[in-house]
Write a structure and sequence with these properties.
globular; binds 5'-O-[(R)-(carboxyoxy)(hydroxy)phosphoryl]adenosine; Nucleotidyltransferase, domain 5; 18% strand; 11 strands; binds zinc ion
Length: 351
């Protein structure tokens, strides 16, 4: 790897984020702009609005990045962008910007899988490339779009997908409850706050796929909380909101941590991590720390700014691609789904 800098773009969903890192992965600049105010009235992300905002927001942030770091564009050796999975129009804004800059400045460009970005987010600010003793490693990536468990033999090995949700992502289930309770979108953070004043044993939600290896399911939980909310009169619901949030959040976290524990017992790693937007959850963070003590394994959880979508994790994952010797052509495409070669699939289906 050379001694220059890299510039990374993350635009896979509704956050526009730009990061400049040095070749060791040190973050020199990071700015992310969300679009919550544009989507909140729709109760979800509107793809067309998301791409329009990315194309308006990306270059002003890049402009600030160049001014604040006092770099000139020529000192950037590689432009990195998330190219999959995600919303097609959104991905194309970041990918085309990275490609165009690289092509016109005669530099390299790197395409990054968004889930790999989340996977390596715990090492932002911790020098991934000097963290050999953290491996082998088990990683839980849990966000609004993904709920995956990976095993990594070493820093540069292809992640092995050992567990995943069969249907909805954990964050999607939390966001659905947020919507049902009128907490806005995405509702995960509001549920986290409201849960603190609720009784987490007030309601019993299903322990879906508890005994089915490292597989997970959140659609049953989603339906059961919808039925519960719909069965309540408005005044009862107002009184029980916090109890519903606390009980639902507890069950989601119970399932995630139980699967993570099973994965650690099965794969005997040196350390484990929890990352992705839902890793911002205070209960999940606290319980992951407890699991670390119980299993006597180090745990890595990203600092809050690297939990939800951000370009720092994409930059780090891109630097890793460079270290692996991967190169990317001008015809590399964005894709709404991961490519087969991104992960080795060895799902643990049964206990
Ligand atoms: O990683 P992310 O920004 O986007 C995806 O790749 O999906 O994750 C967004 C998800 C949303 O579902 C949001 O509700 C959830 O992260 N989230 C939280 C918290 N903060 C964000 N979920 C639970 N507790 C939080 N504090
Ligand atoms: Zn994400």
């Amino acid at each position: 790897m050379n001694d220059g800098f890299v510039c990374a773009f993350e635009t896979s969903c509704d956050d526009t984020s730009v990061c400049i890192l040095d070749s060791s992965g040190k973050v020199l600049f990071l700015e992310s702009q969300d679009q919550n105010e544009f989507h909140k009235d729709f109760g979800g992300i509107v793809p067309e609005i998301a791409s329009r905002n990315h194309s308006a927001n990306l270059y002003p942030i890049l402009d600030r990045a160049i001014k604040k770091t006092a770099l000139n564009l020529d000192q950037i050796d590689t432009f990195i962008a998330t190219t999959r999975p995600g919303l097609m129009g959104s991905l194309m804004v970041g990918a085309t910007a990275a490609k165009t800059l690289a092509w016109s400045l005669k530099k390299k460009w790197v395409a990054v899988n968004h889930i790999k970005g989340h996977l390596f987010a715990p090492w932002v600010d911790r020098n991934l490339f000097e963290s050999v003793t953290d491996f082998p490693h088990v990683s839980l990536v849990v966000s609004g779009g993904h709920t995956h468990i990976f095993y990594l033999e070493s820093i540069l090995s292809t992640p092995i997908l050992i567990g995943q949700t069969k249907d909805d992502a954990a964050g999607e289930a939390l966001d659905k409850l947020g919507k049902l309770l009128g907490l806005g979108f995405p509702g995960g953070a509001a549920i986290d706050v409201l849960s603190k004043s609720g009784n987490d044993l007030a309601f019993d939600f299903p322990k879906s796929l508890w005994n089915e290896g490292l597989m997970m399911s959140f659609s049953g939980l989603k339906s059961s909380v919808r039925r519960l909310v719909e069965s309540m009169a408005d005044d009862e619901l107002a009184v029980k909101k916090a109890d519903i949030c606390a009980s639902f959040q507890k069950r989601v976290v119970d399932i995630l941590l139980w699967k993570l524990k099973k994965a650690c017992l099965l794969y005997k790693p040196q350390s484990f991590s929890v990352s992705g937007g839902v890793s911002a959850n205070s209960l999940l963070r606290e319980k992951a720390e407890n699991l670390s003590k119980e299993l006597e394994l180090s745990v890595f959880i990203p600092s809050m700014k690297y939990c939800t979508d951000n370009a720092a994790m994409i930059g780090l994952a891109g630097l890793r691609e460079i270290k692996m010797g991967h190169s990317f052509g001008w015809n590399e495409k964005a894709s709404p789904i991961s490519f087969d070669q991104d992960f080795i699939k060895k799902l643990v289906l049964n206990d």
